[in-house]
Each structure stands twice: as structure tokens, then as C-alpha cells.
Specification:
By secondary structure, the chain is of the alpha+beta class. Helices cover about 20% and strands about 20% of the residues. It binds ligand MTE.
Length: about 325
């Protein structure tokens, strides 16, 4: 997702960090006593106390959840191992490297939490931490997650449909868009402390969907994965998952959901509109200006030499969403 790279530097497969490489590197550095120092270089704002004190020693604890397993959300795809899902992340609030979020977020506080649903609704709602897990029945849904950087995972999320929550707030007929906002808390999120360490983003991170996309039954608010509550690096305590769109739409650690009559200015679209469209539907026919989107590297249980380059599918294989875009030129509205 870094932006100012010369055109000739198209992303190569080898540039997308393989999790085994990362784990090995980490072990070697640890045994040499270098882990703190190397991580400090990767995340310029990380302070020594974070590294040699709380962050490195503390481990965020996740809790088991009760949920059903509806048949329509099972999948034949091989699940990405949990260890990889929770250690190869994009969460720029905790640094721009793939291993920064897990390293920098372990003391993140999720309780108390407050999630507000407001704007063009009849009945604004505020949910506290406990409410996130008991307001709606939880279900496990196995979804493919396709990052715009051309890697992908298969994740057993736990959560509830966004539609079921929005219906409780009763959207007004003037509402056309749903806007999501991540927590803004520079004390806890080192990437928010300055533009350099946070990837040039003007925080808080904001995303948006058209109301009909938000109401689609596939659109999920996730509070867990692999049977347990979310760890911070994956967006605790609550994040969006829109499986037919590039991963940057799936905003993490949400504090506000606002209904509006206007299309919002979203984070990546504002940074580079020619690279990251508002719709961001997975589309093998529309390349990123600097790399192909026709294929992707699936992160599996395989090691370094696993043959895991696969063809990317339109809408990431979720063809049931096609009617949402009937008559639209998806090359123009990418
Ligand atoms: N949400 C916030 N607030 N900040 C981020 O940097 N990164 C996005 C998305 N949500 C991001 C975010 C991107 S680019 C991707 S690919 C997914 O989170 C990654 O989700 P994962 O780390 O759980 O795999």
C-alpha cells in the first residue's frame, strides 16, 4: 500500500514478505538479542519503553466465543493457519511493516469500547464492549481476504451481518452511504503520532460503502477469528469484512458508523485516487497501475517454496454481488 514507488518497481512475489521468512528472521534476531533494535528501525516512532517494556512482554489475551456455523458460509478453500493470519497484517496505525501490528499492539485496550451508529438513522445506537458480543447472534463465516497488494488468505471470521445491526438503527430514506471510522488514539497507536510512521495517512482511517453494499448479506462485522475474540493486530474489538472488495475496505477497530447522503472521502482513495478506487471491487481485469491484479499469492500452510500463485477471481469469487453493479462500467468505477 506504499505509494511513492517508481513505476518500474512493480511488486514482485518475493517482495511480499513470506511469513516463514519473517518468523525465521525474528527467531534469529531474538537469539542474537537484536529483536528490539531491528523492530525499532522498522517503526521509527516506536519508543524504547514500548519495545523493551510492555509491548514485547505483554500478550493480548483473546477469549473463546459461542457461535453457529451456517452452511452457506463454509468453504472448500484451505484455511490460512491462524499463526499467519495474526502475524502478517496491514494496520498502519501500528506501523507500516507487515510485522509491526503484532509487535506494537499487544497492550491495546479494547474494554471499555464504544461503537456509535448515527447520522441518517431513526434510532441512533451506542454499543459498549460487552454489547459487541451479545447484541446479535454470532456466526462463523469462512471468507477469502484479497489484499490489493496481491496476497490473499482464507479466514474463519466470527461476527454478524452489518445489515442486522443497521436495521436496528432504522436507516432513513435519505441515507445512501455508510461511513466507518477507526479509533483515533495516538497514545495507543504509534502510527498516528506522525505522518511518516503512519504511512502518510491523515488519521482517523475512514472507509465507506454504498448503502446497498452495506446491506448485502455477505457484509460482515467481525468480532473474532478461529473461535476467539479478535487480537488487536486484526482489528479488535470490531472490524468490517467485505469479502468481494480489496482488503483496505475492511476497516479495523471501528468506533463510529455513520449514515449519510454523500459519498465519503475515504483514506486510501484520498491518498492516491488513481491507485485505490472508492469501490475497490476485486477485479482481475483492472490492474493496479504498478502491478497486475490477475493473480495473487495465497498464504497457506505451505512453506517458502509452496506453489501458491493462483488466478484472481472476479469479485474474489463472490459472484452473487454482481447485481449490485449492473450497468456500471467497473473499469471506470474501480
Ligand atoms: N484498517 C485500519 N484502520 N488501518 C489499516 O491500515 N489496513 C487494511 C485493512 N483495514 C488497515 C485497515 C488493509 S490494506 C488490509 S489488506 C486489511 O485491513 C488487512 O487485514 P488483516 O491484517 O486482518 O489481514
Amino acid at each position: 500500500m506504499l505509494i511513492r514507488v517508481p513505476k518500474s518497481n512493480a511488486i514482485k512475489e518475493s517482495q511480499i514478505t513470506d511469513e516463514n521468512v519473517y518468523q525465521n528472521r525474528r527467531q534469529i534476531l531474538k537469539s542474537m538479542g537484536f529483536l528490539g533494535a531491528s523492530a525499532l528501525l522498522a517503526s521509527p516512532t516506536a519508543n524504547a519503553i514500548d519495545w523493551f517494556g510492555s509491548t514485547e512482554q505483554k500478550k493480548f489475551t483473546t477469549e473463546s466465543l459461542k457461535f453457529s456455523k451456517p452452511q452457506q458460509f463454509r468453504s472448500d478453500d484451505e484455511l490460512t493457519p491462524k499463526q499467519k493470519i495474526i502475524s502478517h497484517n496491514n494496520f498502519y496505525e501500528f506501523g507500516t511493516g507487515k510485522s509491526d501490528p503484532v509487535a506494537m499492539s499487544q497492550s491495546f485496550k479494547v474494554d471499555p469500547w464504544s461503537l456509535t451508529i448515527d447520522g441518517l438513522v431513526e434510532k441512533p445506537i451506542t454499543l459498549g464492549y460487552e454489547d459487541l458480543y451479545k447484541t446479535l447472534d454470532l456466526e462463523e463465516r469462512i471468507y477469502r481476504l484479497r489484499c490489493v497488494e496481491a496476497w490473499s488468505m482464507v479466514v474463519p471470521w466470527i461476527g454478524f451481518s452489518l445489515a442486522s445491526l443497521l436495521k436496528k438503527a432504522r436507516p432513513l430514506s435519505a441515507a445512501k452511504y455508510v461511513i466507518f471510522e477507526t479509533l483515533y488514539d495516538p497514545k495507543q497507536m504509534p502510527g498516528q503520532r506522525n505522518r511518516f510512521s503512519g504511512g502518510g495517512i491523515n488519521y482517523p482511517y475512514v472507509e465507506g460503502l454504498r448503502l446497498d453494499e452495506a446491506m448485502h448479506p455477505l457484509t460482515l462485522l467481525s468480532v473474532g477469528l478461529y473461535g476467539k475474540t479478535l487480537p488487536p493486530q486484526n482489528g479488535a474489538p470490531i472490524r468490517l469484512v467485505v469479502p468481494w472488495k480489496y482488503g483496505f475496505k475492511s476497516i479495523k477497530s471501528i468506533v463510529r458508523i455513520r449514515l449519510s447522503d454523500k459519498q465519503p472521502k475515504t483514506t486510501w482513495n484520498q491518498l492516491a485516487a488513481n491507485e485505490y478506487g472508492f469501490f475497490a471491487n476485486v477485479n482481475p481485469g483492472v490492474d493496479h497501475p504498478r502491478w497486475t491484479q490477475a493473480s495473487e499469492r495465497r498464504i497457506t500452510s505451505g512453506g517458502l517454496f509452496a506453489r501458491n500463485r493462483i488466478e484472481t477471481q472476479m469479485f474474489n469469487g463472490y459472484s452473487e454481488v454482481a447485481p449490485l453493479y449492473a450497468g456500471m462500467d467497473l473499469k471506470k468505477y474501480f
